[in-house]
Every structure is written in structure tokens, then in C-alpha cells.
Amino acid sequence: MIIDLAGTGEIKEIFAYISIDKHKKSGICGGITQLGLTALVANTKKGILKFEEMAQKLQFESEEGTNIYLIRYELAEIITSINKKNEG
Fold first, then answer.
1. 40: how many CB neighbours lie within 10 A of its CB?
2. How high is the pLDDT of residue 9?
3. Could you tell me if residue 58 is inside a domain?
4. Segments forming the whole domain that contains residue 30
5. Is residue 39 part of a domain?
6. Residues 4-45: pLDDT tens digits?
7. Is residue 81, in this structure, part of any structural domain at all?
8. CA dist 26 → 1, 5, 10 (Å)
9. Using CA atoms, how far apart are residues 78 and 72, in angstroms rounded to an integer?
10. What is the number of structural domains in the chain?
11. N or C: where does the chain have the smaller number of CB atoms within 10 Å of the terminal CB?
12. Is residue 82 part of a domain?
């Protein structure tokens, strides 16, 4: 279970663009957006499709033998929570 940012419910799946190179090394894709460096990750299919053009550009610029995939993670658990300390 993953709690959404507003704390109002659960996110049951996460979508991400990942790359896997010819040496079988993998990672989550990222790119520069108005917010700076941004991981190509979203909690809805509609949301991740906003990054499709960026993922296509990454594929075009990748070295030979590197593939980019859109994947969906369904099983997750909260490992730890990092909360802002209440000063007051």
C-alpha cells in the first residue's frame, strides 16, 4: 500500500519509464522539466502518458542496445515515513 500525497487514500499502482541497457543495467528514466530534474514516474496511466514524448526523446538519444519500457508496479509497501518535525 502506498499513501497518496494528500493522505486521502491509497495508490494501488505506480507507473514508470525505465531503461535497460545491453549489460542488463536498469534505472528509472528522468528528464529536465520546469521543476528541474524529474523522474518519469506517476500514479496513474493518464499521468505517466504526459511523459511519453520525453521518454521517446530519451530512447532516440540512448546508446545502441538500450531500451526504454513503460512499466507498472502493483505491489508495494511503506518502508519508512519521513515527516517534517512539528516545531512549536
1. 23
2. 59
3. yes
4. 2-73
5. yes
6. 555 555 677 899 999 999 999 999 999 888 888 999 999 889
7. no
8. 24, 27, 27
9. 17
10. 1
11. C
12. no
